[in-house]
Write a structure and sequence with these properties.
- InterPro entries: DDP-like_NUDIX, NUDIX_hydrolase-like_dom_sf, NUDIX_hydrolase_dom.
- This is Nudix hydrolase domain-containing protein.
- Keywords: Hydrolase, Magnesium, Metal-binding.
- By secondary structure, the chain is of the alpha+beta class.
- It contains 3 helices and 7 strands.
- Strand 2 and strand 3 form a beta hairpin.
Length: 158
């Protein structure tokens, strides 16, 4: 099934899926270059710095893979192909770092290849994107251990 590319990003949490412990279910990708020497990171809109494309798995999406690809499009302007499941990763933020806008989450990440990089995408005006080597990305993700865990589970050339 071809991915439908929206011209605007989804907002709000009305359709957000939650787990049995009340944790937000988040899906994301580790988007790798074809030679697996680079990963595409995006700028965070809330914290600053760099992150992997990710976001809430919503009730109208059949699978977390579908949500991960939608988020990759909205946030990074990429069309990607899921290559493999990197597994579930628990949220490692401390209680004082959680907010009603950013509650505890469980992350489901997928390794993906980038099939297309668009020049226009829904969050282009809010986020930059940059290809980075493993060492550059490792440094950029230091403050986000769950994202670094996903990167380390991928087959990026280290």
């Amino acid at each position: 099934m071809a991915q439908k590319l929206a011209s605007t990003a989804r907002t709000g949490r009305d359709n957000q899926r939650y787990g049995s412990q009340g944790e937000r279910l988040v899906a994301g990708v580790v988007p790798l270059s074809n030679d697996k020497k680079k990963v595409l990171l995006i700028q965070s809109t809330r914290r600053g710095g760099w992150v992997l494309p990710k976001g809430g798995w919503e009730t109208d999406e059949g699978t977390p893979q579908e949500a991960a690809c939608r988020e990759a499009w909205e946030e990074a302007g990429i069309v990607c192909k899921i290559l493999r499941d990197l597994g579930k990763i628990p949220d490692r933020r401390k209680a004082n770092e959680l907010t009603p806008q950013a509650p505890k989450a469980i992350f489901q990440f997928y390794e993906a290849s980038v099939e297309k990089e668009a020049s226009q995408w829904p969050e282009k005006d809010r986020r930059g994107r940059q290809w980075m080597s493993y060492q550059e990305a490792k440094q950029a993700l230091t403050a986000r251990p769950e994202l670094l865990d996903a990167l380390n589970r991928s087959s990026i050339v280290k």
